[in-house]
């Protein structure tokens, strides 16, 4: 079968030109470290809640997600209409882009960042404005400000940035928000916020109510380990969220996801224990990689970024040959999720071989 089938009907060329989102793959008998999944199972009580909700699969879900909305509103000290629930934070991003940016408008974001960002503006006929990361793999917020034009309708800031793991600081973000026109929507994508240990990192929760144009997005897919149920949330001004609700696919959030998220919110102690475990594992792995000679940015999500450059495809192949699946972003680098404890020793050994070969000679030499 052809990789690029020819459509028998007229379709939008800009859509046909986009690569579809590629999910991380698995490897039999190995470690899947390509999807930033949580290696821990769901928190206690979640599976029971899902099973109970499944008894009414013949009924549509309650799309308003009232219990989950109320829990989040209480937790963040906002009203219920300042909370929006979606099938993962990525679905909320799509809704907000559709609500804010139409044909010819511009959406500004840092690059490289989350690989789904480029196709979101295209869906509405808007234009992506990619602002290159700094040399140390961080958002260049001054350059993002300079990229704003009279056609800009939305700016996305991702902290910690996926896939590089770097953060935007609280000071940087507040200065950025003070300079952004107040009628221009800014989305702070904090899918990995729970894993952050840098005290200087931006905290969207601390900024709620301070800016009339800011929406903060988070998810239950990562720290809470509910990736298979697809549930995320946004917090921001009611009028903005109401516009986003009108662009949602009807009935997109299952009752199972809602109940699982509510139960998960009630177990902060065990959640924090797991998050601390993953963050400590991440930091120890990063320190080992730095000792090997890797020039990897300090990570703040549940993953590590290795800038393998032109050798990215070969690096991913070598990892796979050794039973480790990583996420390759050609031609910049590979992202490696923090997985099971058992994966760490093998990952360090393979990475040591790669970096040693890379440093042996000119950049045209393979790294393994």
Provide a brief overview of the structure.
The protein has 368 residues and is α/β, with parallel strands linked by helices.
What share of the residues does DSSP label as strand, in percent?
Answer: 5-15%
Number of strands: 12
CATH topology (level 3) name of the largest domain: Aspartate Aminotransferase, domain 2
Percent helix: 25-40%
Relevant CATH superfamily of the largest domain: Type I PLP-dependent aspartate aminotransferase-like (Major domain)
Note the overall shape.
globular
Low-pLDDT stretches are 361-368
- Provide the domain count: 2
Count of helices? Answer: 12
Mean pLDDT: 94
CATH class of the largest domain: Alpha Beta
Strand order of the largest sheet: 2-8-7-6-5-3-4
Calculate Rg over CA atoms: 21 Å
Largest sheet: 7 strands, mixed
Distance between the termini: 32 Å
- From the helix content, strand content and strand pairing, which structural class follows? alpha/beta
Level-2 CATH architecture of the largest domain: 3-Layer(aba) Sandwich
Family: Belongs to the class-II pyridoxal-phosphate-dependent aminotransferase family.
GO biological process, one term: L-histidine biosynthetic process
Protein name: Aromatic amino acid aminotransferase
Keywords: Aminotransferase, Pyridoxal phosphate, Transferase
